[in-house]
Amino acid sequence: MHLDHPDAYPHRHTYGAADPRRADGTRRALRIGLGGPVGSGKTATVAALCRLLRDELSIAVVTNDIYTREDAEFLLRHAVLPPERITAVETGACPHTAIRDDISANLEAVEDLEDALGPLDLVLVESGGDNLTATFSKGLVDAQIFVIDVAGGDDIPRKGGPGVTTADLLVVNKTDLAPYVGVDLEGMARDAKAQRGDLPVVFTSLVAEGGVRPVSDWVRERLAGWAAVSP
Fold it and tell me: Which residues of this UniProt protein bind GTP (predicted)?
């Protein structure tokens, strides 16, 4: 059986990616994955989303790192959520292994959070830093965000790769650095459009007030659609 199949891990995971039910029949949280290269701003985006949405939604976070809990500890240090709402998976190999190939550790982490915290609205699953091929299994998340940054070069959208071309939302982060690294943001927008067609692209600068709002607006839209799915 292919590892992306929702029945690949029957010990815990008994629902498909579009099924709003948990194994016990109760409604589950919307799960959104965040991937992208090292240093693109994935953890900072997760932190900003938690700060903005935590008063209106019940949120939890699962982070992935190869050998450490570094991203989870960053979120804990900045108190973006209570400690019991943040957990870490140490993948022990390239991060895509745990978000795409063998997703059992992440599924267990998500389900443990829901068991411990009761009904959740949103679970953010952050991948460790990976390359442009990193994507999430549809058995793990319901939608995925791919984060790149302008300091990586304005040719990143042109290079494509599944992360850039197929993610439900592409985030081009650190736009405030564009003048210092000689990046043409309009050119990046054109290249992203050419690669992604009608799939959305947003540009962010998390150091600016309200900089994460384009992402949070998209998350709210996904939550509204998720609420309309009948259990």
Answer: 36-43
Question: How large is the angle between the packed helices 70-77 and 42-53, nearest 10 degrees?
Answer: 40
Residue type, 67: Y
- Which of 226, 220, 225 lies closest to 52, judged by CA? 220
> Locate tokens 């400690």: which residue?
83
Distance, in Å, from the CA atom of 32 to the CA atom of 30, rounded to the nearest integer, reads 7
Please determine, for residue 105, whether its predicted confidence score (pLDDT) is greater than 50: yes
State both tokens at 226. Answer: 């998720």
Q: Strand ranges (DSSP E) for 57-99?
A: 59-65, 86-90
Token pair listed for 228: 């309309």
Look up tokens 């390239």; give the residue.
94
CA distances from 43 to 160, 198, 223 (A): 22, 26, 21
CA 156 to chain CA centroid, Å, is 19
Domains along the chain?
A: 30-227 (3.40.50.300)
Angle at 86 between CA 80 and CA 92, to 5 degrees: 125
Q: How far apart are CA 196 and CA 193, in angstroms?
A: 5
Binding positions for GTP are: 36-43
**Exposed/middle/buried for 25, CB within 10 Å: 0-12, 13-18, 19+?**
exposed
Q: Give residue-wise pLDDT tens across range 159-190.
A: 999 999 999 999 999 999 999 999 999 999 99
Binding region: 36-43
DSSP type of residue 168 = S
